[in-house]
Amino acid sequence: MNAKIILLPGDGIGPEVVAEAVRVLSAVAARGGHNLKFTERLMGGCSIDRYGVALTDEVLADCRSSDAVLLGAVGGPKWDDPQAKVRPEQGLLALRKGLEVYANLRPVKVRSPLIDVSPLKRDRIEGVDIMVVRELTGGLYFSQPKERGMTPEGHERAVDTLEYYDYEVRRLAEFAFRLAGQRRRKVTSVDKANILESSRLWRQVMITMAADYPGITLEHMLVDTATMRLLTAPKALDVVVTDNMFGDILTDEASVLAGSMGMLPSASLGASGPGLYEPIHGTAPDIAGKGIANPIGAILSGAMLLQYSLGLPTEAAAIERAVDRTLEKGYRTADLLTAGERPISTREMTEQVLHELE
Fold first, then answer.
1. pTM of the predicted structure, to 2 decimals
2. Could you identify which of 169, 326, 345, 348 might form a hypothetical disulfide with 352, taking C-beta atoms 3.0 to 4.6 angstroms apart as the criterion?
């Protein structure tokens, strides 16, 4: 197989973890006789510094013509002025919209060697395996109008709009139900239907779609209940489908189950075109450049890239197994430490994963 992959390392620890993911992808490709061509481009704060915008039209065009896009993270204190007209996150939103990747898959899997890293009790999280399906190109982050200004009375006012169309919910629901059919056949739809009109539409569409999947159990859960159930009864969840903002918050919370945000990958997919893959963590500017970031979220994002965009599930599974064996042997970056353990560097963690691949 020949494939073109665009790399968007971004800011902070993004370049560090993307580089390690590329090492693993290259090793797996070489073993399988595949030719992966990696091309690096700027996005985020580094693009603002160079071009004045977070994502140029040329970079977006490159991404759209690729087979897949691997992203690090964008943002940081340097560009974090709330008054700024141009922000790194604008590039991320424009990329998602430009690639038309409306379904964000965020697997939350508790790996046995890391059970004691989580602050939650072992019997509560052992065996947890959740797939969060987050709507990615609508809702509060994208809906218009967005306004900020002064009222005639002299008060500053800001407006964000929450809007969903039935087709946006329908296509995501279809994605969630299909995934559930390959797993434990249960979908939990998270909304705020007791308050929000958009959530009432969401729930109505989910109920209608469920009729097409009679073998799948559908339950509805208010987001405030979901935040509690995610920590108190996570084993009861299989596929969780929710809107853009709720999904963003819930998956960050779910990182507590896995032990660290550095462990969680993601895949953003659409009806066609290249997928977008990225660890869910941020740029972590406090540790950037120190060589201590956890590369596993990026490495596992690479595994999802192989599975969903390149159709190489065997190679993806090989990376998953190598990560598990590395953790079973006790190797830990600083974010995964428990008492008495010695941390290894970003590069050393990747070296161990590569060793297990061999």
1. 0.94
2. 326
